[in-house]
Design goal:
Helices cover 19% and strands 31% of the residues. It is built from three helices and ten strands. It has 222 residues and is of the alpha+beta class. Strands 1, 2, 3, 4, 5, 8, 9 and 10 form an eight-stranded antiparallel sheet that branches. It has one domain: Jelly Rolls (Sandwich). The N and C termini lie far apart (62 Å). The longest helix has 19 residues.
């Protein structure tokens, strides 16, 4: 068929990503008729299941990696078939000083991944060219606890863009991801909280997990 041709280049990344996203939206609608997937869930799912192309974590050259539609669809299917717990969580924080807590027991935690994503309200644009300061309006936090050990999300240094992503307090991105680097089995707690007050009544977020999570409590941040 002469109506088709094969070409490559960065100009084709947007239509490829958009087409992949539409397929996932259609599949979600098939699994959950009448339920609209939040934009933050779709974005978080694409980044959560992307194939890393360089060193572990995001980088300024390849982002979160290569979109893997099949892996994203598999997470959706697991969520639909889960008898207990959730792989895809959509919830919201409000102006009260509380956080959300989730629980999971892991036999083999090495490499288990959790991704937090939210659609941040509009920020005031900068007059500086290529500013490295944070433009977050609502700064949400993702943390994982195992006894006295705290696991932090990936962070990048905008002043040293060639450096690998390292665990830290991410204050610039509306996506936070934690990959467990321990083989210690047991009970793990996943926490979602916010740093500052909200300018809107609520802030919706999406939490994507490799394993089914069970909501346990809401209480003041640690």
């Amino acid at each position: 068929d002469r109506a088709y041709a094969r070409v490559t280049g960065t100009s084709f990344s947007c239509p490829s990503a958009s087409g992949s996203a539409i397929l996932l939206v259609q599949f979600y609608d098939r699994l959950f008729p009448g339920e609209a997937m939040r934009a933050s869930t779709l974005k978080g799912l694409l980044l959560h299941t992307a194939d890393d192309l360089m060193d572990p974590g995001p980088d300024y050259q390849t982002g979160w990696g290569l979109i893997n539609v099949e892996a994203a669809a598999q997470v959706m299917r697991l969520h639909a078939d889960a008898a207990e717990g959730q792989f895809l969580i959509e919830s919201s924080l409000d102006r009260t000083p509380i956080m959300h807590e989730y629980h999971v027991v892991l036999d083999d935690p090495q490499g288990v991944t959790f991704t937090l994503c939210w659609t941040d309200p509009d920020a005031r644009p900068s007059t500086l060219h290529d500013s490295s300061r944070s433009f977050l309006t609502h700064d949400l936090d993702l943390r994982v606890f195992k006894d006295d050990t705290v696991f932090l999300p990936f962070t990048l240094d905008p002043l040293q863009p060639r450096k690998d992503a390292v665990p830290g307090d991410n204050v610039v991105d509306n996506v936070e991801q934690i990959v467990l680097n321990t083989s210690e089995p047991g009970s793990y707690t996943i926490e979602v909280s916010r740093k500052y007050s909200l300018i809107t009544p609520v802030q919706w977020y999406s939490l994507i997990s490799d394993v089914p999570l069970i909501r346990t409590t809401r209480h003041a941040p640690r």
